[in-house]
Structure formats: structure tokens, C-alpha cells
Amino acid sequence: MPGYVLVVESDAELQRQIGAALRDAGFDLHAEADAAWARKTVGTRVPDVVVVDTRLADIDGFAFADELRHAPETRTTPIVFVASTHRGVSHRAEARRRFAPADYLPTPLDLGQLAPCVAELAARHAAEATPPPSPAPSPAQASGEQEIEISEDDLSDQVTPPPVPKGTLRDPAQQRERRDVERSAKSLAADADDAELQGTLKRTPFARLLQRLYAKRATGSLLLLHEATKKIVVFNEGYPVSVRSNVLGETLGRILLEKHLITSEILGESVGRMQKEKRHQGEILVEMGALSPFNLERALVEQVEAKLFEVFSWTDGKFMFKAGPPDAGEHRLLERSAAATILEGIRRHYDEARQRAALEKYADQYVGLTSDPLLRLQDMTSDSVELAFIQSIDGTRQLETILDRAEIARDKARLLLVALSEAGMLQRHETTTRRKGAAPAAPVPPPVSSLPVLGAPAPPPPSSAPLASGQLSMMLQTVRTQDYFWALDVERDAPAGDIDRAYEALARSFHADRYRLSLEDDRKAAQEIFDRLTEAHRTLRDPAKRKAYLAKLARAADGAGDEAPVELPARARLMTPAPPSSGGTAAAGSPSNAAARALYEVGLEHLKARRHHEAVESLRQAARLVPNEADFRAALGWALFRQAPADARAGRAAVAELRRALQLDERHRAAAQHLAEIYAQTGQPDLAVQELERLLAIDPTATEVAEELHRLRTK
User: Fold this and answer.
1) Which pLDDT value is given to residue 324?
2) Spatial separation of the C-alpha atoms in residues 560 and 683, rounded to whole Å
3) Least confident interval from 24-33, 134-143, 413-422
4) Segment 160-204, tens digit of pLDDT
5) Residue 156 exposed, middle or buried by CB count within 10 Å (0-12, 13-18, 19+)
6) CATH classification of 456-573 is 3.30.565.10, yes or no?
7) Sheet hosting strand 102-106, strand order edge to edge
8) How large is the C-alpha radius of gyration of the chain?
């Protein structure tokens, strides 16, 4: 039976994914971002299982686990480590032995494995904690003497606090918001003639309205009216960023109480102080030590989300959207993308009848993902199983067939299809036949190979972080100066399928959804890169346009004379030996080399700080910009292995990169040493010895290599 789980995770996105997986499995959750507040949480309520990252904001997860094991109340509490660091097999074995009962799950996290793991540990812990059978009757019972008994009413009085009168939940902040919404609604309604969109939710459901505003990249205010309820949703570039409501019940205190983050007594005290001191309730709760700053931030976001998701339950009402900059004042940024918001709203409020109505237009139709890349590549979910289901919708099957053959539960598949439809990601296909060699209207890349093709970009995981400002500006500079074949990293005679796959992977990396929370300059840079990639794809995908573009490149090269550089096809660029460079680094004579060098340096910094995922992202970009640089390949190979040393596929990819580095420079000491280290750590000492012997034969003065070789031989 599911129990109470404490999640201690500093990565907000990873914490959200863990929470969603465990919540779907029926667990009662509490989350903190650091060990300091997790200690207070444990003191308030002892969890049945603790899920903790090996790297926290204040200390490492192992130190926190030590504290749990030394505290009497948590000495036997099961611990599940999320290994964002120390991913090796030896670390896993040591953690399981030292902190038993415990389990150890490496990142990238398999969310499908998480809930069963937690459930098994919780069940085992509950079974071990079951009290022994009741002893025989006491002498007092045998003699008929009366014993004191505790009734269920006595226990319920202790477990369930008395309800708080509704009046005390009407905090001053919510009352001010109500007055503000009433004034703003009157102002918007007075200028109805200037509205860009207006209508009824019966004709245009809220989910579809969100999609329309997203497609228009609209910025402005949306007024929603339903009976006596008024809500104003502020949009920025198509994303809902804040919601205000005139409903007094949608308060921060009520949300915290419903989630068991505070007690009714603490709520009453905070409201009293708020009315007396004229301060925000969240600030007072943190000051009281009743709520961590992290959970306050999450609760404030959930408060805004609750106001937004409630609109999905409206089957009728009126709306009016007015474009323009948002009102001055504080607007809390919502975390979800437009597509993810639509999915969550549908999950919460669409019953079976509404789901059927949304999919009715696809009955007996072949459906696929839309050909519009802005809509098709939206960030709807980070669940790998759901992503695989979405990517399988390729226009070759009818709707019912998709539901019947789905590898996920039918009701879950139907909800995803409804969300895809409302988010504009789904389209009907008029015919199922394809011309030989033609690709579907909405190309969907196959799963990434475990051994990446050199020079071929691989799509990043949905949860991976966007590039930093400096990296983005360098990528933009190089994309501006190179031709379309370079931009997509394809050969000039590449077939349509290769162009589709290359574009899909790169465009997903720079889609607006990935940068929606970034600074404005970063959003603009990513959008320009995305637009240039899209234009390159459209040009090279069309045979006539590609022919005209090749003729244009030829005329430009002829006009430049002998001094014009000859742009080689992608595969030829990969196989051309690198020009000699000082110190074994990339030359800085072109924008692409300068950008690659900067990305390489950033990647090395990430490696030193054990931010292996970020290191892989930076080094992969550097290797793509200058594919024939041994330093970049060697560093990328080592980063791939350090990111997931227990993953056989990652190990093979790492070896492939290091082998490529040695093909470019057979004397590359770092590549050979990394290769030997991987062989040694993966139980292949003979191969490690061979690699070091080869390097020592080339450079007999390499004392470090000789020492490592001696260590392996005598081990």
C-alpha cells in the first residue's frame, strides 16, 4: 500500500518528474530542495521512504543519508538514491551495503522503474515494522478488572485537525487581488472594440484558445468570464505567465493546508499575523520556520496553476483577448509550456464525453503529427514512454488502431491524443499511400542510436538544460556565416530522410519551448537559429529549391575566384585530416573554430565540476562545429562515459569518440589514457594494457603512461 515519501532534490525539473511518477502511483509526497529543510520535515513527520539526490544544494546526499541512519526515528527508513553523481557500479554497491535498506538509481532516471522500487522498499519496511501478535490477556483482564481503552474518536482528534473557518482563509492579499481583477475586467471590457479575439468557451474550448494564442506568439491579457467568476490570464510570447482571480477561496493558505504542508493552527496564526503586520503570508510562514523557501516558491506557482487549470472545467463562458504589454506589477512566471499546460488541464478536467467529442473529427481517419515544426516540436511531456507513443504517430494508422496498439494504457493514450489535438500537434492525413522514397508530412526521428554517427547531431533529452548565453551567441554567429548543408550537417546529395532526421534533432534543441524561461536575448537568439534551421530544411527538402540553392552556391564560388574557400560536403569534411594546430587545439581562424574552442573550454569547466550532462552538451556542439579536432573528440568521449559509467550504451559511444580522436591523432595521450581507464573500469584490463603499451611505444618518455601500465600489470 502506498505511503508517505520525502523527496530531497535540488533540480526543480527532476523533482517535478519524480513527484509526478510517485503521485501517479498513489504516494503521499513532500519535497524539499536541500538537507537543512529536509531535516525539519523529518522532525515533523517521519517518512516511509526517502528519495534523495546524491548532489544537493547544501551537502551531498550521502551525508544526509548518514544523518538519517544516526537518527533513531529514521535508522531503518528505506532510502532511494538518485545518482546524478557517482554513477559507477561500485558506488551503487557501496550505497546499498552502507545505507541498507536502500536502492541506487542512476540518471538519466528511468521513471518507470522508480515507483516500483519505492513501493517494494516501502512494503518491505512496513512488513518488518509490523508489531508482533497481541500478548495473552493480562492478569487484570483475566480477573475482570477494567482497563483504559483509547477510542477511534480519541485518535481521530489527534490525527485530523479541526477545520478552519472559511473566513480565516480570506487573506488580505487575495482580497486585494479580487478588487484588482474587478477593476481590470471593467477596463478590458470598456475597450472591447480593440480586442483581437473574443467569443465563447462553448464554441472555442479553453485548451484550443491556449493553442491559438501560442501559435500567434501573443502577448497581452485574456479576460475569462463564467457566471460570477472572473479571471485574467497574462500571456508573454504565447505562454501563460500569470493568472489573477476574483475567487477568494483560491488562496495560498488553502493550497498549503490541502497539501499538508502546514497545519490548521499554523495557518490561523499566519493569517492573524498577516492581517496585523500587513505582510505576505508566505514571508511570515518562512519566518515562522513552518515552510521552506523552496516549498513556498513551489506553492505560489501551484496557486497560480490551480487558478488556470480550473478554467479547463468550464464548458461555457466568455473570453476576450487584448494584445499589449502586461500591466505593471509582479507576474509570477508559470513553469509549464503551453502544450504541457493543455495536457495537465485535460488530465484534470476532461471526462470521457469531452474526450470523445475532441477526437470525433478523427474517426476512421489516418492521423499523424503536424508538419508545422513550431507546433510539432512542442514540449508536452518529459515521460519517455509518453514521448515514444507520440513519436509513433506517423500517419500510417487510423485513430482506433493507434489506441488498440498503444504500449501504454488505453485511457492514457486517449488523453495524450486529445491533448495533441487541442495543442495543434495532430493532423488528419488524406491518404495513407506514400510515393516511393517520400517521407511522411510530419517527419518523426527514430530513436537515437546507442552509437552516434560522427557528425550527426542527436536530439537532447527533453529535460536537458538549454545552452548558456555565450554558447547561444556563438552558435548563432556560426549559423549566420555557413550554408544550409553545414547548418544541418548533411551532404549535398543527402536523401530526404537524412535531411528530416538532421533537422528534427537540431530544431528540437533550439525550439522556443526549451528557452521559454530564459532571458529575452537568449530567446531571440534561439528563435533565429530555429528559423534558419527551418528555412534550411524547407530549401533542401524540396528538390527544385535545393537545385536552385546549389546553383546559387556555385555562382557565389565562381564569382569569388581562386580565393573563395571550397565548401566540402558534410561527410568529406568529417574525413578530411585536421590541419596542424599549436598545442593540439582547434585553430581560431574562423567563427566556427572560435565558437568551438569556447564551447570546448566551457565543457572542460563542466567536467571539472562534475556536471557531466552539461559537459556532454557543450562538447558535442564543439565536436559538431569542428569534427576533425582530436581534443574535442577525446573530451566528449570521456564526458559521455562519466555521465553514465554503468550504462553499456554510453560506454560504447564513449569508446567510439575516443577511437575517433586517436584516428585523428594517434599520439593523443588523453584519448589513450581515457580509453584505457574505460577498459579498466569495465572489466577489460587486457584491452587497457594493449592501449597503454601502444601509446608507450610511440612516446617512451610518457612516465604517467608507464606508471599506469605497471599498475595494471601488477594488479
Assistant:
1) 87
2) 56
3) 134-143
4) 333 444 444 456 667 778 888 888 888 877 777 778 889 999 999
5) exposed
6) no
7) 28-32, 4-8, 49-53, 79-83, 102-106
8) 30
Identify the CA nearest to 92 among candidates 104, 80, 81.
104
pLDDT tens readout for residues 629-643: 999 999 999 999 888
The pLDDT-based confidence of 309 (bands split at 50, 70, 90) is: very high
Q: How far apart are CA 578 and CA 595, in angstroms?
A: 17
User: What's the CA angle centered on 261, arms 84 and 12, to 5 degrees?
Assistant: 25
* Predicted pLDDT of residue 108: 79
Q: Strands across the sheet with 239-245, in order?
A: 197-200, 318-323, 220-226, 229-236, 239-245
Pairing outcome for strands 318-323 and 220-226: antiparallel
Q: 682 is written with which cell numbers? A: 569495465
Pairwise CA distance, residues 499 & 111, whole Å: 32
Instruction: Give the tens place of pLDDT for each residue, 664-691.
Output: 888 888 888 888 888 888 878 888 888 8
Q: Are 465 and 477 in contact (CB under 8 A)?
A: no
Annotate 636-656 with DSSP letters as a single string.
HHHHHHHH-TT-HHHHHHHHH
Span 574-596, pLDDT tens digits: 333 333 343 444 444 455 577 78
The helix/strand/coil state of 516 is coil
Q: Which helix (H) or strand (E) holds 694?
A: helix 685-698
Antiparallel, parallel or unpaired: β 49-53 and 79-83: parallel
CATH superfamily, domain 4-128, is: Response regulator (3.40.50.2300)
Please report which residue ranges of 108-169 form alpha helices under DSSP H.
111-128, 139-142, 152-159, 166-169
Instruction: State the average pLDDT over residues 300-324.
Output: 90
Domain with CATH 3.40.50.2300 in the chain: 4-128
First to last CA, the chain: 49
Q: Do 81 and 61 contact (CB within 8 A), yes or no?
A: yes
Which amino acid does the sequence have at 159? V
Asked if residues 456 and 502 have their Cβ atoms less than 8 Å apart, the reply is yes
CA 182 vs CA 189, 199, 245, 512: distances in Å: 11, 20, 9, 33
Q: Report yes or no: 80 and 103 within 8 Å, Cβ to Cβ.
A: yes
Q: Per mean pLDDT, which of 120-124, 420-424, 508-512 is the most reliable?
A: 420-424
Per-residue confidence (pLDDT) for residue 589, from 0 to 100: 46
The cell numbers describing 157, all together, are: 482528534
How many other β-carbons are positioned within 10 Å of the β-carbon of residue 703? Answer: 9
332/300 Cα distance (integer angstroms): 8
Question: pLDDT for 256-267, tens place per residue?
Answer: 887 777 888 888
What is d(CA 223, CA 230) in angstroms, rounded to the nearest whole number? 7
Amino acid symbol at 163: P
Place of cell 528511468: 110
The residue among 144, 103, 88 whose CA lies nearest residue 682 is 88
Are the CB atoms for 660 and 633 separated by under 8 Å?
yes
C-alpha closest to that of 633 among 606, 671, 605:
671
Cα–Cα dist 562/577, whole Å:
22
pLDDT of residue 480: 83
Q: Minimum mean pLDDT among 11-25, 144-158, 210-224, 411-425: which range?
A: 144-158
What is the length of the chain? 715
Kindly state the cell numbers that stand for 513: 519551448
Residue ranges in 133-202 assigned as alpha helix (H): 139-142, 152-159, 166-169, 172-190
Strands 4-8 and 49-53: parallel
The C-alpha atoms of residue 318 and residue 188 are separated, in whole angstroms, by: 13
For residue 130, what pLDDT is reported? 58
CATH 1.10.287.110 residue ranges of the chain are 456-573
pLDDT at position 565 is 42
Assign 714 a pLDDT band (cuts: 50, 70, 90): confident
